[in-house]
Design brief:
heterodimer; A: about 375 residues; alpha/beta; nine-stranded mixed sheet; two-stranded antiparallel ribbon; 11 helices; 11 strands; about 30% helix; B: about 375 residues
Chain lengths: ~375, ~375
Amino acid sequence: MAPRIAIVGVGQSVHAPRRDDVAYGELALEAIEEALADAGVGLGDVDNSVTASMDFWDGRTIANMAISEVVGSYLKSEARVCGDGIQALLYEWTRLVTGTFTLGLVVAHCKESEGRPHDIEAAAFEPYVQRRLEPDGDVVAGLSAQRYYATSARTPRDAARAIVTARRAGKANPKLAPMDDIDEEAVLSSPVLSTPLRMLDKAPLADGSCALVVATEDVARELNASPVWIAGTATSTERYFSDRDLADVDALERSSAQAREFAGWGDAVPDVVEYSAQFGFQLLQFAPALGADKLDPSRVNPSGGRMAGNPLVVAGLSRVAECVTQLRGRAGTRQVPRARRALAHGMFGLGAQSHAVVALEGDS
Amino acid sequence: MGRRTAIVAVGQTDFVSRRLDVSMPEMIREAVDRCLTSKGLDLHAVDAIVVGNMELFEGVNHPELVWVDAIGAAGRPLFKINTGGTVGASVAIMCYYLVSSGMYERVLGIGYEKQSEGESQSAITTVGDPVWERSVMAGAIGNFAVMASTYVHESKVTPEQAAKVAVKARTNACLNPHAHLKMPDITVERVVNSRVLALPLRQLDMCPTSDGACAVLVAAEDDAQRLTPKPAWIAATATAHDQQFMGDSPRRLADMRTLQTVAASVYGQAGITNPVRDLDVAEIYEPATYAELAMYENLGFCAKGQGGVLMDKGVTLLEGELPVNPSGGVLSTNAVGATALVRVAEAAMQVMGEAGEHQIPGARTALATGYGGNAWTEGLILKGDRP
């Protein structure tokens, strides 16, 4: 039986299409200061950190160098993963479980507005042959959507409905920039992005950050900061997009099943599911693997999800932050009743190639 | 508490300037296969994979996802690390935590760089702040020239003492089948007369750029001992960072505070009180000759200002009291994403008794370090005896 590890503080910057007012280190600091205050600790109390960021998007090699001050890593250990923030949380969990550290900071940050998405995504294709076609992530998403609609009973209208719901939910989330009100017709009649996808099928680009303070059980009890327990976590990877059936979400199913098994939940269903979808069809495609299709819609992505405006890298950790807020009963107007168990999900890569899931339990 | 965790297998490609015969995934797979087959294993033995690479060097974004089949990661947990010179050590330390925590049983750590397919120094220049530093940063050479200047001023080391480090490295490399720069006829005179890169650094004072890959397999407790009779037990790990802006910490290149912090931490964890006596061998991340001498001082191998003297005494030669970089080190082989993992792998090979011609007889305790970014240091102590 592994020692119990708790999330004792959460913080998020305001997420918006452009945060020209801050450099990315300052953007990370917004979330970090809020998370530390929430946990009731100072930066000096934190004994290690794990951050998530991507050099291509930050436009710097070893991009985490620029956040060493704000994560407090002077003469201390900061580890860094190039992936979704939930992978950073998974790594922090292992660092606390071994007993090496007792109080950690997990940070994810990204400014999608400062990169050129097409070029960055084109660089993620196999470089010797495919890159010459000048593809990007939208092309793979279009192929995935074609396979999904061809193999399921769902339609682009179903996806449009899910997008409208997500954007409406996001209005109640104070960390998100306001978005235009749209209806299904607006989605379905927006310009073509990559057949069958329309422009409004895609989550907006965003700048933002998220931070969690994570502690061993002893420290969490001392802090008395409404701990939320990490009951299980898992990550898995798909084959490269051109080597698999894009209708399948095996890595997501595996991550979800393993995280729930790790948590010992058996057949119990989560009370809240927060998951990361960059496109409307993914809201439909990912839901069954997380049990989200069986829940009352009010219990699914009450934050609005990535569709309402979180960036890559940060999206998964923002899902965790929302779950923690829900499990603590502090979600205000978007609070889900009787929230005791929650699943949070993050993903990245062409055609959603990497997935990570964390199972969370409230302190009862 | 964490489980006792060890490196049970290592594999390296041969390192050269250009591997024109293989693509990036083929090159990586070569190291992976050499690692696993050395213990009669294949990719079925692996539960999770950690990949280290500086993606801006080759310009491939998420190479771990593109090469997912080559590294056996389809259907498995896969993590990507990109922490500059320390990448390989970051990979090894992450493998340690993933296994020690009980999250996974066997984790494969991979580091690679195919620098011939990219423009590394352009990428390294982006390490600086885009407004304040980028226009005056000139890649790794300029950075280490500044370091060497401050160090020379403080310690009074001579170009000849630094040149002895180059001679040691490229001579040791002749005994390492994987090393890139093998120079059996190198002399102090040749080093001090090689062309100037950025004073006081001359060409032979600086590491090369290489193509190559390295892999290690990490396992725990009895499983580790089933996989190999002599695992390299990970007795200590530590990481420390410095401030972001070089101007905020003018003495950091003379003092190497992160190296001091990491040394104190890993020595404490592993019960080392006198490193020259207690360590049998060290594989340290020395991108330049002067850096190695400064590192002797900051790792406690000698007193402050005595790095050059320690070199003169031959303490760190292959037959010395504490051989440093019997593999030939970074000065002989440098495929950045692999380099710090090669330090860890070579340290593991020494305590496993698998280092071949450059084996230090009876080595039981080894230090490995990674160094990069904003004077960022990582360190591990490996032991032949189960803790």
